[in-house]
Design goal:
- This protein is α/β, with parallel strands linked by helices.
- Helices cover about 25% and strands about 20% of the residues.
- The protein has a single domain, classed as Alpha-Beta Barrel (TIM Barrel).
- An eight-stranded parallel beta barrel has the order 1-2-3-4-5-6-7-8. A two-stranded antiparallel ribbon has the order 9-10.
- α3 links the parallel β3 and β4.
């Protein structure tokens, strides 16, 4: 069955407060911290204020695309539990993990089986492997059946334009489900009603 849920792309205090105080909060909340092409991107000073809250039992995830040393130094004392890394090699991922003593979600963008097999390079480094689409900030899908033969004991997360109504089809999969665009009124603006529907649904399955 579904392991956990991650809501990604939170960028305003009212939505964050709503999620944290929901009766059935997600396990993870993601924040776009250095990818300026995304409409969910949060400016540095706003990010600092936004995540300076009591997280309760929710894990905060910094979503980073090929982050520089300079940027990592700027956020090293922020209220994050995981760094979700895109376009970062295994060696670089290990370096970041060891230096900042933080858990790592390695993000692989998928179009074919060769891309899926990339998870093997991160064995022993990543705490979670995220299988995502090639869309980055755009909500695009990929063929989830490509994941059918990956090891059952792999701690895995999937994204890629997953909709709330897709959850039922994934309920027998041992995935962490990552949603963002499906929970929005428009790109970058979350819909409280959709978030509520998701969180109530995941308790029932």
């Amino acid at each position: 069955m579904i392991k956990k849920v991650k809501i990604c792309g939170i960028s305003d205090p009212s939505t964050l407060n709503y999620i944290l105080n929901h009766p059935y909060p997600p396990k993870f909340i993601g924040f776009i911290t250095n990818y300026k092409k995304s409409k969910r991107y949060i400016e540095f000073e706003n990010l600092k204020k936004l995540i300076n809250v009591e997280k309760k039992n929710v894990k905060f995830v910094s979503v980073l695309v090929n982050p520089t040393d300079e940027f990592l130094e700027k956020i090293k004392d922020f209220n994050f539990d995981y760094y979700q890394l895109y376009d970062v090699s295994p060696n670089r991922s290990k370096e970041i993990k060891d230096k900042y003593k933080i858990k790592i979600i390695s993000s692989l963008t998928i179009s074919d089986k060769k891309d899926v097999d990339g998870f093997k390079k991160y064995s022993g480094i990543s705490d979670i492997i995220l299988f995502d689409s090639k869309g980055y900030h755009r909500s695009k899908s990929f063929d989830h059946s490509l994941l059918n033969n990956i090891p059952k004991d792999l701690n895995k997360m999937i994204a890629g334009n997953i909709q709330i109504d897709d959850i039922h089809n994934l309920k027998y999969k041992d995935y962490i489900i990552d949603l963002s665009g499906a929970l929005e009124i428009e790109e970058g603006k979350k819909d409280i009603n959709k978030i509520d529907k998701l969180l109530n649904l995941t308790v029932k399955i």
